[in-house]
Amino acid sequence: MIYILIALIAAYLLGSTPTAYIFGKLLKGIDIRDYGSGNVGATNVFRTVGKGPGLVVFFLDFLKGLLAVTVIPLLLKKVYPGVDGPSFVYVLILLGAAVIAGHIWTVFLRFKGGKGVATTAGVLTGLAPGIFLGGLVVWVTVFAIWRYVSLASIAAAVSMPVFAVILGKDLGLVIFCGILCVVGVHAHRANIKRLLQGSERKLR
Q: pTM of whole model > 0.90?
């Protein structure tokens, strides 16, 4: 049990690495929280630091999620072989939840991080590629039509539990996707307000 706890802490700390904040400091000497939307995420880096850095931050945040549900489990199995079994999928889900929680509530920035979109995408790529691809299609479609990153992310979040059900995934994974949907929409509550007011910025 102690090994699982250590793995969860490692996943949380991995997610907590504030890549957007680090890139803002390194490349422009700024605190990304004081610019643009104030969000510690790839979209804000894209707008305030540059397209290249924004794409790199997105990739790194994506990678955090992917590593948490692929590499960390492999290491866990090596030190604790008994963990592998029919219920191991729930350990993977907990690791995914931990890395996403780390990104959204990073211990390094007083528990105020990004919105978890890229990290969630990485987690789903590792856990359920079909759900990720479905969500990606939704994201790309909504963004191509309306050009709002936030709206596309909200639509993708809502689609995740739907795809989990359609693809016949384990109940635990369906519930996990439902929780991710709620967390994702809640994280975008300020964006939803701006969308309703017509003041949300489009990404060109």
A: yes
